[in-house]
Amino acid sequence: MTDDYIRRTAITRLAVEEQQHQLLERTVTAWKRGCQVAVEKGWPRCSSKRALQSRAYDTIRDETGLGSQHAILATHQAAEAISACETRAENGRTVSKPEFSAPTVRYDSRTMTLFDDGTVSLATVESRVRCDLVLPDDQDGYQYQYLDADEWEVTESTLTIRDGEWYLHLGFRRSPPATEQAAAENGTVLGVDLGIEHLAVTSTGRFFAGRELEHRRAEVTKRHRRLQETGTRSAHRTLTRMRRRDRRRTKHDLHRVANGIVEEARDHSCTVIAFEDLTGITDRLPGAEMLHRWAFDQLVTYVEYKAESHGIRVCTVDPRNTSRRCSRTDCDHVAAANRPQRDRFHCQACGYEVHADYNAAKNIGLRAVRCGHTSSHRTGASQCALKSGTISPEEGFHPDSDERAETPVHG
Ligand SMILES: [Zn+2]
Question: How far is the CA of 352 from the centre of ligand 1 (A)?
């Protein structure tokens, strides 16, 4: 891969239960088979990922039981193996068709989710399994410098079994520090946290209520159930009408919130709006349902196209630790105890106390800055917008000239 990222690997053992063990073993078998099927389709000349994917994907799905994303990853693994053979052949060395016998499976952000409670969920040939990472007890383990550090993002990783124990080789990447980021435009990020209690909270301290949506959802479900029990044709018609009206109202709400977010970004001269990556969000948020996942997806999409016409870009960041990290850049303390209640953030190191969603929104904005998500574009960002000023990882808080207090407003 030719990009500018710095890459590191952190290896951790997994605590796997018997049933999970069997599922993972079947996944390894399916993976090896999937890669082999792809090689048979491509050997010896097809080393383009895209071409091999379209050639082998259907057969892999039919014959191996791998999920769609794993089937794609298997074609990519095979294409890389064929490509490596081509290079060896060009250098005058003998090559033979690749055989996939290693007990491994490749994972990416769509097939694997790391959670803040030290667990990981992995796609298998059936349902996902969720197991504990077995990390060193003291916080000195080298893994923590990647797991807890804001600037490292999780990228492609490999699961493997050795002497009956499962290990995850977690791939991390970060953009190189300094130079081109410094040369980038002095842009500002608006961080946005999504949730149920508040649909969205910005790093500038604007809160968008989510309770109306919740309330309406509960009401509608109740009325639906009553009508469904009636079972008549007119009840069915009423039901259809209500569903349509409900969808319209929800979309209307989401448009209103999207407009508010873009407005907030413009008011604070932001060039980038950062959301957390939505993969696994229904697992991260207790009480979240498919409706929320749908609503979050819609909201981000609406913001994307509304922001575009104002020259504002939307990016997503890795959500790890955004709710447990102290958003004061001179503190940066990460601990589960920092969040004593769902809506309170209270830093155990520096005493900073603030609404938990607001703290998360600031962390999302800061992460977009630190990861330099935007550095290769003209709209590079080097600071995160707050209610009363901006904050940057290097220089900390910088107040606006009019010195407004850093108190969140509800809107
Ligand atoms: Zn702190």
Answer: 5
